[in-house]
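Dig into what follows:
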Amino acid sequence: MACLVVADADYDQLEITNASECNCSDPAYWYNELCDCDYPEATSIALVHDALPLGIWYGLVLILGATGNSLVITVVIRYRKMRSFTNILLASMSTADLLILLFCLPVQYCKYLSHSWIMGAFLCVAFHYVELMTMICSLMTMTTISIQRYAAVAFPMKSMSFRSKKRALKTVLVTWLLSALLAVPILFGQELEVYKTPKNVTVSWCWRRFSDHYWEKIFVLYQFVILYLGPFATTAISYLLLIQRLYFGEANSLLQENVSARSVGNANGSTAEHQQTYQAKSSRRFCPRREQSKKVTKMLVIILLLFFVCWTPTLVDEFLVAFDYLCHTSPTTTLKYMRMIFAIMKFSNSCINPIVYAFMSNSFRTTFIIVCNPLCLKRRHSLPVDSRTHNRRDSPISERSLRLHSDIRPTELLDGAQSVFRKQRLMKVKYAKN
């Protein structure tokens, strides 16, 4: 019985025991040594029935992902008030998504256009290394954000020093270096195998093959438990604790206690009535921030869940194969198409995050509109790039509309832009009449 050998989400060989089982109309049989088929002149044979729908989907993912992640990086770099600790880390995650889309996605599609690996030994190793490194970087970034946001609510005073922009940039650098280091073991597991078919056609395959099957199990355990489940569990626990504090009022009571202690310590002759008034005002100031934290937390939890849904199938599949719970062989092409869908899911995750930001974050939505609006792009004063080079009084849209920690009021910002444009049109009409 013919069994489809599916490894590494690619079109692979068919393992057969009898030449009568060969089906030369199927490209999967062209490279089997037992089959006396008319082999193609080149190994790059387009499989139209699979390549066309995959090409359309991958094209959409590439366009949406490259545009969206570039916008995220642009607004964080360009607009000073968007450079909060969380936003800087989100821009780092967008960089990882952009890397996997621009480097790994085209290589993945080339695997589907050709029946064998035609891109050489370097890309065989680099493709899987970059893919693993960006996955680690994204997950570690989400873990860092979750811990930081919990600390900001649970320990607002102590965590102030850890939320600076310089600290965020250092965190990004450490995250990338650590991700690059943790992905190194895969360099010893990818191998390019080259051989010739009975028709003297050179065929190459990019396999995951360690020196011993035991080491493959160790690597998969390391990848699944330490690199994936560990950070994911830490992130999930941090968000659960954060949600508990936000929705059960503990953060508000903590802030009131801090304000009360500070009021007593700094004003020895103050009355109890003054202290209560001070606490009430501080509580009112905290309420909008608390609601903002709830919105941001919802957005970040959705991003985490989407990452989990998109990446888990591929990692679970590799785990089951390494431990022989799922066989490499299958009598049908079900496993092949299943792994093609898994690959689509993990690449699609890289284009989803900017869409989530646009729908759930007022700050990102507003800055996206400003960057994409041709009218705003033509006006240098639509939004100052940096307060050091633009005077706030000369700017029709003040940076004050970009609130602390990316809490932008879009109506305030856009209304300001519209009023400026109306004044300019009235001036043009006045000059035309004169």
Q: What stands out?
A: The CA atoms of residues 20 and 165 lie 67 Å apart. DSSP finds eleven helices and five strands in the chain.
